[in-house]
Sequence to fold (481 residues):
Amino acid sequence: MNNRRALIYALAIAWSLCLNPARAAPAESEAAARKDAHDIFKQLIEINTTDSVGSITMASRAMEQRLLDAGFAKADVIVIGPNDRKANMVARYRGKLGSKLKPILIIGHLDVVEAQRQDWTTDPFTFVEKDGYYYGRGAQDMKESDAIAVADFIRLKKEGFVPDRDIILALTADEEGGKSNGVAWLLQNHRDLIEAEYALNPDSGGVRPDNPQIVGFEAIEKLYADYQVLATNPGGHSSLPTGDNAIYHVADALALLQKSPFPFELNAVTREYFAQLAKIESGQTAADMRAILTMPPDPQAVERLSQDTHANSIMRTTCVATMLSGGHAPNALPGRAEANVNCRIFPGHSQEEIRLSLVKLFNDPKLSVRYRSDAGDLMDHGSDRKAMAPPPLREDVMNALRSVAGKLWPGATVLPVMEAGASDSIHTMNAGIPSYGISGVAIERADDRAHGRDERVRVDAYYNGLEFYYRFLKALTTPAG
Fold:
């Protein structure tokens, strides 16, 4: 270890202890786990796993080797997938011999959203340590959690810990996009490898260190959908600007979309979320949270809360333009223009229902709105499937979560949340495996950079997340008696 890296570790430990003064200095195994976690995180960030040019297989092989070097049996670490670039890694941590308990499954995607060097102040595929943060594509979504899971597997193995059941870790492809979603593929082709009593998904939930401090667990999530908004016409010479213009048709539709939010909604999870949060918020915010729970809800309170991007995202379906293209020459009227509209659909509504809502909103016969599948195929009709109902809350999971969170973040409130985005839990839930979004990595609301430029995670938050999952897994699987 060079002097600079040793200093980074020392500062990270000192910082963590300042935030958690009740914690003793890290034991030898914890210090070793931190080094492993650092090196694994760096390795994963620097393996490009984008759909366009990256390799999930390379990342899977790297994690396979880490586990084999730590003493896992070759038969318990499998790299498998539909093609050379999209192979998933499935590792099994063996539990007590003869245990009748079904395994616990941890899922985490290895793929990341595309990132262009010119958009970042650092190289997105170089692991950079500066100003108390780790930078790189995937630092928040979700290579930090992948690295934590692998490092904690290694730490538990080195300590000789024997859980009361098997723990399965599946690191997979194409959650962010692409045609080879790893969780779906494993369920369809090798379900025996990941069959479990329930799943943990660190891609959702998490710690908000803002005031008030919250430890959220995902109880339900929105439904994901993309739509193509397309305008076509014969085009013409640009010297005739009053002619039909496909770009204007699409632009007018998008401007209307921006000004037309979907209706306010609550469900059992978000109602409980706002009810509990109102008890620890203060002033107008707390009053507004109580006011939206009344029947009927106070429209002015809804409007004020909607100005907060996070609150707005869990109070309604949201749709936003994410890509735009049009025209074929600088001196011609565009005969074709299209936009991609990305929607996160409130539970209870289907992809087709939202497609029809967009058609009605645009009210333009010169526009078509088609559903775009995960594989990129365009369809005139979206799925009628709706978001899954939340799984029943397991007493063992909740007790372990409250216990560990209470020790690491004293005074924080544990809250059920609705994930504003979507995750691979949709596949495990649809397969009958109850799934819970739980992460121990703290990210300030104002610093949520997932999918954005200069993605980063605080050094202390990363190592606290490492400690959280180590303790959480032990709490869930320590044999009784």
Summary: The first helix runs from residue 3 to 19. Residues 21-25 have pLDDT under 50 and may be disordered. The longest strand covers residues 223-232.
